[in-house]
Write a structure and sequence with these properties.
Elements (H helix, E strand, L loop, with lengths): L2 H6 L8 H16 L3 H16 L4 H4 L1 H17 L6 H10 L1 H4 L7 H9 L5 H17 L3 E9 L2 E6 H12 L6 H10 L8 H18 L12 E4 L4 E5 L2 E4 L2 H16 L8 E2 L1 H4 L24 H4 L4 H9 L13
Parallel strand pairs: 3-6
Antiparallel strand pairs: 1-2, 3-4, 4-5
């Protein structure tokens, strides 16, 4: 059976503009509500359909590229489904599409994934690996070039990180210095607003990644503070005061836990204790993860899925069905 006959019988015909629009609408919905499981399913569907349409790249290369961009955007939303190695590879080769996803903060995704590492040292290594991957990234971030030692270099992700490192240093910097760099630096002062916004988003991510997890600013979980004088939380090293309504909610939760003999709310500490060094988790302390992954579907199996199988994956959003595939 030829590809032409196959696609005519497929409800997801990649050659039709309605199919692309449908997937684009799905992306906005998934991004708006941070639907990680559905995004993972959608990435699997698009990958499978592309494998079943081998002539699309030759027939309509621009359309083919748009589908691949959608594929990677769905992958970014579902970032927590992937191994550390795959996440790092995505930062090295496919960071650019993440910058164009509405409502999604990639740092929040990284912060969530880092919680899978119990040891602080492992979290720091994970974040450092992402920085190294971004330095190697050769995707063109801006049409403007980056000048170094009198030589103009393409405005790639890696070159902009190199430039910001020269100007700002290796350690985290104050917001004022970052703003000055974005406006007054030799390479940034003539940037368009779009280019400056892209660089700001990239450097903001780098600055977050620079902060060690064994500091209050870099500690990923939220530290609750609850005593007679104050009720609030330390989030990324910043104190957030709870208003009266939140105090009542917290008291209600505490009363419920007391009635069930569960003790005080988890993570609640006094202001004095909050100033103490953060204690490293022991090997016996575990972290809650996403729901258990169901039987895997590899990329090789995806290539041979029938259309009806893809439709089943697409329509079973309410079930805890997930799929992990291996990258070629």
């Amino acid at each position: 059976m030829t590809e032409e006959n196959t696609t005519q019988n497929m409800p997801f015909d990649l050659y039709k503009s309605e199919t692309l629009e449908r997937f684009q609408d799905n992306l906005v919905e998934c991004a708006t509500y941070n639907m990680t499981q559905e995004s993972h399913q959608m990435s699997l569907i698009i990958r499978g359909l592309l494998e079943q349409s081998p002539n699309l790249q030759t027939d309509q290369p621009e359309l083919y590229q748009k589908y691949w961009e959608l594929y990677w955007q769905f992958c970014w939303i579902a970032l927590n489904y992937f191994s550390d190695e795959r996440v790092i590879a995505m930062f090295q080769k496919h960071y650019l599409v993440s910058a164009d996803i509405p409502f999604i903060d990639i740092w929040d995704k990284v912060k969530f994934i880092s919680l899978n590492h119990i040891l602080i040292e492992d979290r720091n290594r994970f974040k450092e690996s992402i920085i190294k991957a971004l330095r190697k990234n050769q995707e063109v971030l801006t049409k403007e070039t980056v000048t170094k030692d009198g030589k103009e270099n393409p405005g790639t992700v890696g070159h902009w990180i190199m430039d910001s490192t020269i100007e700002l240093g290796l350690k985290s910097v104050e917001a004022v210095k970052l703003a000055e760099y974005l406006v007054n630096s030799t390479n940034t002062k003539s940037l368009s607003k779009e280019s400056r916004d892209r660089i700001r988003k990239l450097i903001d991510l780098i600055e977050h990644l620079k902060i060690p997890s064994d500091t209050l600013e870099g500690y990923e979980p939220i530290i609750a503070i609850d005593d007679d004088r104050s009720v609030g939380a330390i989030r990324a090293g910043v104190w957030e005061q709870y208003d009266d309504s939140l105090k009542k909610i917290r008291q209600s939760i505490a009363d419920t836990m007391d009635s069930l003999n569960l003790g005080p709310a988890s993570g609640s500490v006094t202001p004095a204790k909050a100033k103490e060094p953060i204690q490293r988790r022991t090997a016996t302390q575990t972290l809650k993860k996403e729901p258990a992954v169901l039987p895997d579907i590899t990329l090789k199996e995806v290539k041979h899925l029938q259309t009806k199988d893809l439709i089943n994956i697409y329509t079973q959003n309410k079930e805890e069905q997930t799929a992990i595939y291996e990258e070629e």
